[in-house]
Amino acid sequence: MKSPPFDLVAPSSLEDAVLALAAGADRPGGAAVLAGGQSLLLDLHHRRVRPSLVVDLRRVPGLDGLGVHEGHLRVGALVRHRALEDPAAASGALGRVLPVLAEHVGHPPIRELGTFCGSLAWAHPTAEWGVLAVTLDAVLDLRGPAGARTVAAGQWFTGRHATVRRDAELLTGVRLPLPPPGAGAGFLEHRRTEASFAAAAALAVLEVEDGAVRSARIGLAGAADRPVRAHRAERLLRGAPATPEAFAGAARVAAHEDADPVPEPHGGIDHRRQVLSVLVRRALGAALADARGQRQEAA
Ligand SMILES: Cc1cc2nc3c(=O)[nH]c(=O)nc-3n(C[C@H](O)[C@H](O)[C@H](O)COP(=O)(O)OP(=O)(O)OC[C@H]3O[C@@H](n4cnc5c(N)ncnc54)[C@H](O)[C@@H]3O)c2cc1C
Q1: Residue 267: what pLDDT?
Q2: String of DSSP letters for 121-183
Q3: Which of 122, 137, 196, 228 could form a disulfide bond with 39, CB atoms 3.0-4.6 angstroms apart?
């Protein structure tokens, strides 16, 4: 199918982009932002969206910054998935796990064009960057006609392809807190085919001291209509021995108490819980191995 007709503007400043979005918000179908175009163009072609204005962000300067500042990795609105394949993008556990997540996002041409922030804005329930943002308690920076505001990643997603973003707001960047030195991270994903989105995924970030878990963060995809934290499993792990038995127990809690999977065409709810349990257990094991690897390197 062809896209419905729309006007296209390509502002050359952030202020003009926000003004254009605000003007477009009152038009029939509203306005859409074009960042990497990897989801918007498909939505237009399938007529899932019918904006009468598209605001192309790609000429706005200053949105492609990627760098560590004050304990956060800041990812600007025009940073491509591809840039996060580079382990030098951040230090420590985040730098090591970013390429693992990035290589699960679509395939190389998608990663060359699509953006990290576009993924958060589009809000697919099993998108890798959504899980990362929720797990690390990222902060999203927005700019709208009323000025700037920030939203915590845990509050950002409200459902499948739904967020708290207001019509005329631009996501200008995201700040990802760096895990503490010595932490380890592990990410596991299950997908039906190489080309499909994840059916389920788990990201674990662990700090271990004297053989016991000091802190644990676990993010899940495929456990709800949005990425979620496995808070109950995290609590169970805090202070527990970092053993396969403890990880298996936490994984069961994550899959059966934290997760509330929604029906999907492929695989029933019980099957998804089973898959989640395996993914969480393995992600915790990978996070532990990552943390221990760092310690051995430092010794
Ligand atoms: C074949 C295929 C496979 C894919 N596989 C995966 C996968 O496995 N995992 C995954 O996570 N993604 C996958 N994607 C999606 C891909 O990651 C997209 O790049 C991403 O979802 C959207 O980023 P974008 O920059 O292309 O945004 P666009 O397509 O330009 O925009 C998407 C939506 O977000 C809004 N938007 C974009 N940027 C902003 C902003 N800064 N502020 C406000 N609103 C904004 C737009 O208005 C639009 O509604 C796949 C896509 C394709 C086509």
Answers
A1: 76
A2: HHT-TT-HHHHHHHHHT-EEEEEETTEEEEEEHHHHEEETTEES--TT-EEEEEEEEPPPTT-
A3: 122
Per-residue pLDDT at 297: 66
CA of 149 to the centre of ligand 1 (A): 22
Q: What does the pLDDT look like over 266-289, one tens digit per residue?
A: 778 999 999 999 999 999 999 999
Q: Which CATH number fits domain 7-59: 3.30.43.10, 1.20.1270.360, 1.10.1040.10, 3.40.50.300?
A: 3.30.43.10
Q: Parse the chain into domains and list their residue ranges.
A: 7-59, 66-177, 184-291
Q: Does the predicted model carry a pTM greater than 0.90?
A: yes
- CATH number for 184-291: choose from 1.10.10.10, 2.40.40.10, 3.30.390.50, 1.20.1050.10: 3.30.390.50
Residues of the chain above pLDDT 70, percent: 98
CA of 40 to the centre of ligand 1 (A): 7
Gap from CA of 249 to ligand 1 centroid (Å): 35
pLDDT tens readout for residues 225-239 = 999 999 999 999 999
Instruction: Decide yes or no: CATH 3.30.1120.10 for domain 66-177.
Output: no
User: What pLDDT sits at residue 1?
Assistant: 74
Residues with beta carbon inside 6 Å of ligand 1?
32-40, 42, 77, 105-106, 110, 114-115, 117-119, 121-122, 124, 127-128, 170-171, 197
Distance 253 CA to ligand 1 centre (A): 32
193 Cα: distance to centroid of ligand 1 (angstroms): 19
Check pLDDT > 90 for residue 294. Answer: no
Confidence of residue 74 (pLDDT cuts 50, 70, 90): very high
Rounded CA separation 29/212 (Å): 54
Nearest-atom index, ligand 1, CA of 129: 11
Rounded to an integer, what distance in angstroms lies between the CA atom of residue 62 and that of residue 72?
18
For residue 8, give every residue at least 6 positions away whose Cβ sits within 8 Å of its Cβ, in sequence order, or none.
34, 53, 54, 56
